[in-house]
Specification:
The chain has 46 helices and seven strands. It is mainly α and about 900 residues long. Among the domains are: about 170 residues, Tetratricopeptide repeat domain (Serine Threonine Protein Phosphatase 5, Tetratricopeptide repeat, Alpha Horseshoe); about 110 residues, Glutaredoxin, CATH 3.40.30; about 120 residues, no CATH class; about 50 residues, no CATH class. The strands form two sheets. A five-stranded mixed beta sheet has the order 3-4-5-7-6. The protein has a two-stranded antiparallel ribbon with strand order 1-2.
C-alpha cells in the first residue's frame, strides 16, 4: 500500500504488508538456499528439471509460510504492553531474520531494548531501522529518545531535524500513527500545544478512534502542562476503549497523584496486574512510598525496577533521594553517578532529586539540585519552574518571580507557571503589615481590619515558642494571607486544589487562608504554622511529617484549650481497637488515608505521641531529638538515643494512649448499642446500659424532634455531662440552648452557650447569641469578652465589631468606640448611615471637625435621616 511514493505499513498484520514481506522473503531465501545447498547458479537452476524445481519451491514456500505464521505481530504487541520484554525481543529478532519488513518489528525491538536499559543495543537497532525506513516518523521519534538515553545527543537531534523536515514536506498521506508521532515531535520542537492538539491529535482521534497511541499522547501532553484534571479525563476516555490498558492507567494514576492518592494507588494496582514490569508505574509507587517515609518499601520497589532496567535514570535518582534523607552523602553521589552513566548531562536526574527534596521541605537543597540540572540544560523548563517555587518558599521573591515569568514566556501552556504569574499580579495589590520580626501580606481591606491583631498574635507566638524550644530566629518570617482559596493553593502547591489545608509553613515563609474563605479559628491556624517555623528552623527542615505536625497540634492545645485536635468518641474507639499507626510508621498515616476522619486522627495521634514524649522523658529530651534531626540523624535513631529502645517506646506509648482513651469513660459508656432488625436500639440492651452515651443521645434527639421538651432536657443535660467536648450545630449544647431560648430562660441559655463556647473553638453560633444576650442585659464587659472570642473565628463579621463599639460607647470609652465603629464601616454594613451618625455623636463630644464630616456622610446615605439633620443643626449652631 503506497502513498506519495513511500511504503506505509498497515496496522492490520493480516493484510498486504504481511503477505508482501513473506513473498519477498521467500524469493530471496529460496535463491540463497539453492546456491548454498546445490552449488548451482541461477542459470544452472533454470536448466534443472522442471519437476525437481517445482517440488523444491513448493516445499520451501510451505516452510517459510509456516515459519512466518508463527510470528504474530498483534500478539507481540500485546506481549510488549504486558511487559514481556524478553519474549518480545526474541520474537522481533526472529521476525526480522525472517525478513518480515513491517516497521513495527523494528519499533518493538528497539523499544524493548530501550525499556530494559540496553541503550547501546537499542541505538543499534533503531539505527538499522531508520536506515531502511527513510520516511518513518515513529522510528525517528523513538530514535531521538533512545539516542539521548544512550548519551548520543547529536544523533537524537539529527533524527528530530529529519522529523521536522518530514513534517514540512510529507505530512500529506501519513498514517495516523505517524501523525501522532509527528505531533509529539512538534511539542519537543517547541510548537504551540494547542495547535498540536487541534492539528494532529484531535483529527486523528476523530478519523481513527481505535488508535491507542492518540489517547496516550493527548493525556501525556496535558500531564506535561500540569493540567491534571484534563489529563484525568483524557485517560479515562481512552480506558473506555482500551480497558485496563496499563499505560493509560499509569497516566491516570499520575494525573490523580496530587489530588487523590487513594484512587492513584488503585490505578497503579491495576497497572501492575496488567504489567508487573511497568517501570513508570513502579516509579510512581516509589515516589508515593518516599512521600510516606516508607523507605524500606521504596527500596523493594526500586529493586523490582532494577531487575527490568538496571540503568533507569529515575531509579537511581530516587536512590539518591533516599541516601540524602538518610544522610549518606557517598551513597547519594554514587546513585547520582549511576543515573548519569550513559547520558552524562541528563537534567532529569538532578531535577527529580531536587523536586523530592523540596517536597520534604528541604528547599535550599532542592534548589541546589535544580541549579545543577540547569547547568546541564539551561532551557529545561521543569527545573526552572521548580526552582522558581523553591526560591519563593525560601523567601527569595525577586529571583523566584523572575524565573516564573521566564517559564511562562517560554511556555504559555504551562499551567503552573501561568498560575504563579497571575498570582504575582494579585499579591502586588496586597498591603504589608510589618515589624522587626514579621512581614505580613494580606488584602488591603483585611489589613485594615485585623492586620495589627495578626501581627500581635504572631509576636506572642514567637516570644513563647522560640524561648520554649531554645531557637533563635535570625531572619524575619514572611506571612501571606489569601482571601481567595485558589490563590492560597497556587502559592502553596503551584496549582488550584488543596481544599483541606488552612495554612502551610515552608520554614521562614507561611501561607494561610484568610477567614474570608473558611470557618476555622484563624488565630489557632497562625499559632500552629508559626510553631512549624520554630521546629523546621531548629531541625534545618529535616524532620518527619508526624513529628512536625504533632508538635504544632500539641502547642495549639497548650496555648488555648479550645484549639487543636482533641479526643473524640471516634478517636477513642480507634485507639481502643488498636487502629493507631506505629510511631516508626506514623508519617504514612498522612498519605492516602481511607477518609477525612483518618487524616484528622493522624494529626491527633501525632500530637499524642509528642505529649507522651514530653510527659515521660521531658521537654529537654524532645529538644535534643530535634537538634539531632538537624544534623541528619534518622528519626528512629534520634528517638532511641534520647528515650528508650523502639520496641519499648512503641509498647509504652500504646499504654499511654489507652489510658487517655479510658479516661474519657468506660467501655459501657462508649460501646455501640445492640440494635434490632429495624435499626432501633434494643430496649433490653438500653435498659442494661442507662449511662451509655449513644443511648442517652439518641433518646434525647428522639424527644427533641418530637418536641417532648420535659423528656429532652434532662437527657440533653446528661449527654453533655457524659461528653462535654461535643461540638457543632447538632450537639446537645445547640439543642438545649434552643429549648431554653424558646422558653425565654435567658440565664439557662447563657449557661449552656458559655459551656459550649468554652469547649468548642469554632462555636460561632453560640458566641453570636451570647453577644446579643449580653448587649440586651447591658453586661458590656461580657459582650466585649465574647466579641473578642468571635473575632478569633471571623474578624470580618460585623456583629462583634458593632457590639464592641456599642459596649465601649456605653461605658464612656469613646476612643475605643470610635475605632470599633470605624472598623464596622470598613465591613460595608447595611446601615452605614446609622454608623456614621454614631461616629458623628462621638466626635461631637470631642469637639472634633470629624463630627460634621460624618453627619454629612450619614445624610448622603439617608437624606431623610431626621436625627442626623438635628445633629447637623447643632453642629452648625456651635
Amino acid at each position: 500500500m503506497a502513498r506519495a511514493g513511500v511504503f506505509f505499513p498497515s496496522r492490520n498484520p493480516a493484510n498486504f504488508s504481511r503477505v508482501s514481506t513473506i513473498v519477498h522473503s521467500v524469493i530471496r531465501s529460496f535463491l540463497g538456499i539453492c546456491n548454498l545447498a546445490f552449488g548451482h547458479s541461477l542459470q544452472t537452476l533454470r536448466r534443472a528439471s522442471l519437476a525437481r524445481t517445482s517440488a523444491l519451491l513448493f516445499l520451501f514456500v510451505a516452510f517459510i509460510q509456516t515459519k512466518a505464521a508463527d510470528i504474530d505481530l498483534a500478539k507481540t504487541k500485546e506481549d510488549f504492553i504486558a511487559g514481556k520484554y524478553k519474549e518480545v525481543i526474541e520474537q522481533c529478532r526472529e521476525a526480522l531474520n525472517a525478513r518480515l519488513r513491517n516497521e513495527d518489528w523494528h519499533l518493538l525491538l528497539a523499544k524493548s531494548l530501550w525499556t530494559t536499559g540496553k541503550y547501546p543495543e537499542a541505538k543499534e537497532a533503531i539505527s538499522a531501522a531508520e536506515r531502511g525506513n527513510y520516511y518513518s516518523v515513529r522510528i525517528r521519534l523513538l530514535g531521538y529518545h533512545i539516542g539521548r538515553s544512550a548519551g548520543d545527543l547529536e544523533y537524537g537531534q539529527r533524527l528530530l531535524d529529519e522529523i521536522n523536515a518530514l513534517g514540512g514536506s510529507r505530512r500529506f498521506g501519513m498514517e495516523t500513527a505517524d501523525l501522532v508521532a509527528l505531533g509529539e515531535a512538534a511539542v519537543i520542537l517547541g510548537a504551540d500545544p494547542k495547535l498540536v492538539l487541534d492539528n494532529f491529535y484531535t483529527p486523528v482521534k476523530r478519523n481513527d478512534p481505535k488508535l491507542r497511541e492518540v489517547y496516550i499522547a493527548i493525556g501525556n501532553l496535558e500531564l506535561q502542562k500540569h493540567d491534571y484534571a484534563l489529563a484525568s479525563k483524557s485517560f479515562q476516555e481512552g480506558l473506555q476503549k482500551f480497558k485496563n490498558d496499563p499505560d493509560m492507567l499509569q497516566g491516570l494514576a499520575e494525573a490523580l497523584a496530587s489530588s487523590d492518592r487513594k484512587e492513584m494507588l488503585r490505578a497503579l494496582e491495576k497497572v501492575l496486574e496488567a504489567n508487573e514490569n511497568h517501570i513508570p508505574a513502579r516509579t510512581l509507587l516509589v515516589e508515593h512510598l518516599v512521600d510516606a517515609e516508607e523507605y524500606d518499601e521504596a527500596e523493594k520497589e526500586l529493586k523490582k525496577i532494577e531487575e527490568v532496567n538496571p540503568n533507569f535514570p529515575e531509579m537511581w535518582a530516587f536512590r539518591a533521594v533516599i541516601a540524602h534523607l538518610d544522610n549518606k552523602a557517598e551513597e547519594e553521589e554514587r546513585a547520582r553517578a549511576a543515573g548519569l552513566k550513559y547520558w552524562t548531562n541528563n537534567p532529569v536526574v538532578d531535577h527529580v532529586v531536587g523536586r523530592k527534596l523540596s517536597q520534604k521541605y528541604r528547599f535550599a537543597e532542592g534548589a541546589s539540585y535544580q541549579n545543577r540540572a540547569l547547568q546541564f540544560d539551561r532551557n529545561y523548563l521543569p527545573a526552572k519552574i521548580q526552582l522558581a517555587s523553591d526560591l519563593l518558599r525560601l523567601g527569595d521573591e525577586e529571583n523566584g518571580w523572575k524565573l516564573a515569568e521566564e517559564v511562562a514566556k517560554n511556555d504559555g501552556y504551562d499551567i503552573s507557571a501561568d498560575n504563579l504569574v497571575t498570582l504575582h499580579d494579585s499579591i502586588a495589590k496586597f498591603r504589608t503589615v510589618t515589624n522587626e520580626h514579621f512581614v505580613v501580606r494580606m488584602s488591603s481591606r483585611e489589613a485594615e481590619i485585623y492586620g495589627e491583631d495578626a501581627l500581635a498574635l504572631l509576636e506572642k507566638a514567637r516570644a513563647h515558642l522560640t524561648k520554649k524550644y531554645g531557637m533563635e530566629l535570625t531572619r524575619p518570617t514572611t506571612v501571606e494571607i489569601f482571601p481567595e482559596q485558589k490563590d492560597f493553593a497556587v502559592r502553596t502547591f503551584g496549582m488550584p486544589g488543596g481544599e483541606g489545608y488552612l495554612g502551610v509553613c515552608f520554614g521562614n515563609v507561611i501561607t494561610a487562608n484568610s477567614p474570608a474563605s473558611h470557618n476555622m479559628n484563624w488565630q489557632s491556624v497562625l499559632w500552629h504554622e508559626f510553631c512549624h517555623v520554630v521546629t523546621l528552623n531548629l531541625t534545618r527542615n529535616r524532620m518527619p511529617r508526624w513529628l512536625s505536625e504533632g508538635i504544632s497540634v500539641y502547642e495549639e492545645r497548650r496555648a488555648d484549650v479550645r484549639w487543636g485536635e482533641k479526643i473524640t468518641p471516634q478517636y477513642r474507639q480507634m485507639m481502643i481497637d488498636g487502629k493507631m499507626k506505629p510511631i516508626a510508621d506514623l508519617s504514612s498515616a498522612f498519605m492516602a488515608p481511607p477518609s477525612g476522619l483518618h487524616l484528622q486522627f493522624a494529626y491527633y495521634q501525632s500530637s499524642l505521641v509528642v505529649e507522651f514524649l514530653i510527659e515521660r522523658f521531658g521537654l529537654e529530651k524532645l529538644q535534643n531529638i530535634l537538634r539531632d534531626l538537624g544534623t541528619g540523624t534518622p528519626i528512629n535513631d534520634a528517638l532511641v538515643a534520647h528515650t528508650a529502645p523502639m520496641k519499648d517506646l512503641e509498647k509504652d506509648f500504646k499504654a499511654f494512649a489507652k489510658g487517655v482513651a479510658e479516661n474519657m469513660g468506660t467501655d459501657n459508656v462508649w460501646e455501640k448499642p445492640k440494635r434490632d432488625q429495624d435499626g432501633e436500639v434494643d430496649k433490653t440492651w438500653a435498659t442494661l446500659h442507662p449511662e451509655n452515651y449513644w443511648v442517652v443521645t439518641e433518646k434525647a434527639e428522639t424527644a427533641f424532634d418530637a418536641t417532648k421538651i420535659d423528656e429532652a432536657v434532662p437527657l440533653l443535660e446528661k449527654s453533655i455531662q457524659i461528653y462535654p467536648g461535643q461540638s457543632g450545630a447538632g450537639s446537645a449544647y445547640a439543642k438545649l440552648a434552643r429549648i431554653y431560648r424558646d422558653q425565654k430562660e435567658v440565664e439557662k441559655e447563657k449557661r449552656i452557650l458559655s459551656q459550649w463556647a468554652k469547649h468548642d473553638g469554632e462555636a460561632t453560633e453560640a458566641l453570636l447569641r451570647l453577644v446579643e444576650l449580653e448587649l440586651d442585659s447591658k453586661d458590656y464587659e461580657a459582650a466585649i469578652r465574647y466579641s473578642k472570642l468571635l473575632l478569633e473565628l471571623n474578624p470580618l463579621h460585623p456583629l462583634p465589631h458593632r457590639a464592641t463599639a456599642e459596649s465601649f460607647a456605653s461605658e464612656g470609652k469613646d476612643e475605643n468606640a470610635i475605632k470599633s465603629f470605624q472598623t464596622v464601616l470598613k465591613l460595608e454594613p447595611p446601615d452605614r448611615a446609622e454608623v456614621h451618625y454614631r461616629l458623628a455623636r462621638l466626635f461631637q463630644k470631642q469637639k472634633s471637625p470629624e463630627a460634621k464630616r460624618h453627619v454629612l456622610l450619614a445624610l448622603e446615605e439617608a437624606p431623610r435621616f431626621r436625627a442626623a439633620h438635628v445633629l447637623l443643626l447643632e453642629l452648625i449652631e456651635n
